[in-house]
Recover the amino acids of this structure.
């Protein structure tokens, strides 16, 4: 009963706050996903390289002890500000799906995951008056995009003794952007115009990761990833390729006390490799990004660490695709979360609430993102 | 209780999942690919390829009879021949003779100048021998005072409706049908009003033709009782004739009139528009040779229909609802414009449809207006028919 009430409160709180939408997904390949499960989101992403339910590091699968599947839902409530005005928007994502389990009789584990690589979901509207046939006519333009890039990962890990784990992953990157441009005229003598186009992407990548347990209470994890490039088709015709970044990450995990885990990590992505490709396509280019996160998980009962732990953390990230050439977008976020396990820990729910701020010059967003993770261990 | 909270949780979660993604756009930062641009371009009809064709609807096929007294500078008169009235009525398997008590004529006023008072319809007895080839001159001698059988005062309050006149007693002799006419009675109709005007009367083709009703008393000797009967008769033929024959000038584009004319216009749109433009407005602009005449309170409508296959005068037309350009033609105007975007849309894309349209006037052959427009043969290019198209080219979606 009390658990249900807690869930209800978690669900209803975001309705009371205002919503918002990511205008920073308008350029380039869109707003980059973080490939994090809700456990890691609750700590600001600080545990991402150690979290087997996340898809940042294949070596993290070493922590999978049972067949596990995780499904993540996020609901964003964001307020968008730019020189044209403000708007409250909300969006729903299903950014992370993961199935992993140990390999029988081997110190190994394998997993499949489906993550959001970039998302380009937005609708922008403008209203203005133009001169047509010598008469001022009001028009409303709407430009919208739906879709993005998805990352399907097949990964495995092998544990070398109690301290080392080395993993590798193969990534299939695919997705599409369905773009629509609409113009509606105030004068009914003019028909509205709606034009559509679809961009589709396809590429592959590989990743390797390693985790080393230096001591029972201290571990280091590292990851390197190359995504090669994506082929870009517009309306089924090949129009070019876009280089995707190399990713390098380093994470630290420290357990100063039995009830407290602290972690921090940083990820660097060489998005500038896509700069020339995007500029050649008429875009605003791309820049390298840095993402840093720090967070902790406090457990009231060390014997039952999944009994309503308190997770909290913060992260900072730069954004790869500027809205205007030469600018650099930034994102800050603070998170809090918790979780439940029930049915003899065969099922569970994780919740996280994240407050994010994004800005680039006169463009900004802020708002809340509620994440719900559903875990099943059949 | 747990189930209730779970259900409530599900409802709340679903409500929270509703998406709302629209945000204000600040260009150029938030306008990938830019903004749509509307282009405006004028295309003149293909020179020498526009024509008027006459003869689609004849006066006797029109939905109305035109009767006027100089509205267009000349007079028009209506002619009606009724079906034969039988000389006997069958009662109890026996043909009975009858005695005429009264006779009535009813006419439907379809349209008139409602600002004009004192309109009178004059009915004349005619010999029922006219047909579709009859001219004004052929029947003019019959419109003499001796042939005038009735004058119907059209109430000033009547905009449209039925007017009626009744003959009885001594007046029945005016509508007596000689045996040589085989029971057929014919009327000529003209109007009498001090001001030049016209009236549209219901006609056979429109299902509103005049009626000739005879009220009789049957003689049934077997019972010695009298039987009352009504013998209504509709028109077998009706038409109208004009004092001045219609003139056709092959260098101009006429629409309407009687027999009705239609105009065929052909255009040549560049492939950049046919293949990839999104047309938001297309206006056909015409310049009249003279201000359009007609009844100010009964304005005709100008129609534009896409041509399915261009075989000249008999081209099949697209009359699908929503694909016909239509607009009211103002009386006294020297220019006409027709919003034809739904017609021009049919010309776009991978289609072999001809880029041509037909202009016509409705009601066809039943309007006092017969606009005549300049064709592509006009010396002044500004007078030639033209199509003004507002369009958007393919949006330059950023990649990405």
């Amino acid at each position: 009963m009390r658990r249900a009430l807690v869930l209800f409160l978690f669900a209803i709180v975001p309705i009371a706050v205002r919503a918002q939408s990511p205008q920073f997904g308008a350029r380039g390949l869109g707003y980059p996903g973080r490939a994090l499960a809700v456990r890691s989101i609750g700590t600001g992403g600080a545990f991402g390289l150690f979290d087997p339910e996340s898809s940042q590091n294949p070596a993290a699968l070493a922590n999978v002890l049972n067949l596990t599947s995780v499904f993540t839902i996020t609901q964003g409530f964001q307020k968008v500000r730019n020189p044209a005005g403000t708007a409250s928007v909300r969006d729903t994502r299903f950014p992370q799906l993961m199935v992993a389990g140990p390999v029988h009789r081997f110190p190994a584990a394998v997993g499949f995951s489906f993550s959001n690589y970039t998302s380009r979901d937005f609708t922008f509207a403008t209203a203005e008056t133009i001169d047509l046939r010598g008469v001022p006519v009001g028009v409303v333009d709407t430009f919208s995009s739906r879709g993005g890039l998805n990352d399907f990962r097949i990964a495995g890990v092998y544990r070398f003794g109690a301290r080392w784990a080395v993993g590798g992953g193969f990534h299939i990157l695919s997705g599409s952007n369905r773009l629509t441009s609409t113009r509606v005229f105030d004068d009914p003598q003019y028909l509205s115009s709606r034009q559509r186009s679809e961009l589709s992407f396809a590429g592959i990548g590989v990743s390797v990761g390693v985790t080393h347990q230096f001591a029972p209470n201290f571990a280091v994890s590292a990851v390197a990833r190359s995504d090669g490039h994506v082929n870009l088709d517009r309306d089924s015709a090949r129009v070019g390729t876009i280089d995707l970044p190399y990713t390098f990450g380093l994470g630290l995990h420290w357990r100063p006390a039995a009830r407290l885990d602290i972690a921090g990590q940083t990820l660097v992505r060489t998005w500038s490799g896509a700069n020339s490709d995007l500029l050649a396509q008429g875009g605003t280019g791309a820049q390298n990004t840095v993402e840093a996160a720090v967070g902790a998980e406090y457990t009231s009962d060390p014997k039952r660490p999944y009994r309503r732990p308190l997770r909290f953390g913060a992260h900072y990230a730069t954004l790869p695709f500027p809205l205007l050439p030469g600018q650099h977008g930034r994102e800050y976020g603070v998170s809090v979360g918790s979780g439940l396990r029930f049915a003899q820990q065969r099922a569970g729910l994780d919740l996280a609430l994240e407050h994010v701020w994004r800005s680039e010059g006169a463009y900004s967003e802020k708002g809340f993102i509620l994440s719900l993770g559903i875990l099943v261990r059949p | 209780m747990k189930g209730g909270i779970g259900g409530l949780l599900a409802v709340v979660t679903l409500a929270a999942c509703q998406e709302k993604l629209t945000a204000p756009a600040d260009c150029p930062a938030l306008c990938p690919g830019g903004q749509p641009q509307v282009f405006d371009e004028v295309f003149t009809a293909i020179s020498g390829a526009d024509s008027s064709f006459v003869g689609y609807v004849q006066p006797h096929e029109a939905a109305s009879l035109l009767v006027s007294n100089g509205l267009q500078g000349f007079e028009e008169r209506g002619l009606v021949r009724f079906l034969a009235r039988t000389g006997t009525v069958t009662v109890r398997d026996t043909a009975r003779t009858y005695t005429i008590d009264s006779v009535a004529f009813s006419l439907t006023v379809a349209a008139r100048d409602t600002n004009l008072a004192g309109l009178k319809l004059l009915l004349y007895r005619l010999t029922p021998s006219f047909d579709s080839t009859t001219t004004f001159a052929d029947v003019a001698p019959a419109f003499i005072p001796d042939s005038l059988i009735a004058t119907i005062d059209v109430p000033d309050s009547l905009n449209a409706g039925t007017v009626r006149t009744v003959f009885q007693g001594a007046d029945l002799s005016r509508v007596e049908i000689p045996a040589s006419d085989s029971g057929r009675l014919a009327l000529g109709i003209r109007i009498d009003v001090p001001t030049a005007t016209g009236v549209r009367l219901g006609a056979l083709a429109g299902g509103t033709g005049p009626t000739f009703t005879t009220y009789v008393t049957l003689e049934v000797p077997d019972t010695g009782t009298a039987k009352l009967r009504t013998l209504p008769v509709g028109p077998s033929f009706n038409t109208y004739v004009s004092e001045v024959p219609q003139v056709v000038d092959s260098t101009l584009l006429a629409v309407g009139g009687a027999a009705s004319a239609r105009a065929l216009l052909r255009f040549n749109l560049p492939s950049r528009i046919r293949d990839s433009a999104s047309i938001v407005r297309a206006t056909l602009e015409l310049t009249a040779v003279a201000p359009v005449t007609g009844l100010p309170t009964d304005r005709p409508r100008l129609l534009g229909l896409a041509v399915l296959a261009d075989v000249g005068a008999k081209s099949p037309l697209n009359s699908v609802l929503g694909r016909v350009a239509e607009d009211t033609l103002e009386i006294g105007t020297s220019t006409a414009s027709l919003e034809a975007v739904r017609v021009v849309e049919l010309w776009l894309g991978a289609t072999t449809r001809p880029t041509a349209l037909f202009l016509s006037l409705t009601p066809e052959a039943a309007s006092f207006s017969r606009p005549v427009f300049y064709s592509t043969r006009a010396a002044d290019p500004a007078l030639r028919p033209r199509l003004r198209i507002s369009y958007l080219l393919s949006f330059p979606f950023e990649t990405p």
